[in-house]
Amino acid sequence: MNFTYVFEKAKFLILKPAEAWLVIKSKEPENQRAITDYAMPLIVLGVVSTLIGTQFYLKDASLEVVGKYGLMAFLIPYFNIYASVFFIEKISASFLSLGNKNAITQLVIYSTTASYVSSIIVNIHPLFYIFSIFSFYFIYLLWVGLPIMLNTPREKRTSFAIMIVLVMQIIEFLTVFLLKKMLF
Predict the structure, then answer these.
(1) Residue 121 to residue 105: CA distance in whole angstroms
(2) Which helix (H) or strand (E) holds 30?
(3) Entry pTM
């Protein structure tokens, strides 16, 4: 895992999203690389921060409980990537957008950069909860990326972005709900 690559790409996406999306579209050859080289290191950092933070949130937690929270921290974003791609691919034509699975996967992974970074910071300690507001920046990253990655027309971009956000939030809610039911 090349954390320098992840840090530089995340910084580029956050600070210069329009330029970053153009680079992603022109240089990213496949969605598997986006998953293994970019999303997976961020997910792993999220797991580590959850394991550390669980000690602050749940002072008397057993190793089993801490492990379950770590497992959830891995499974939630991992499953959300695939489920979001599946549903976005199904609805993209309704918004006159490309249904290219590779481009959709990249859009999902890279637009959630702010959410990954936010969760890594927030999960470390309860005092950092204020940083969770930064996760909403993913909406802007998504909105900027839609016309570049999926050729979404201007008149459909806002409604498609809202639909994607709703789909992703519903998927996350259901994933968390089901995992908590299964694990706790």
Answers:
(1) 24
(2) none
(3) 0.92
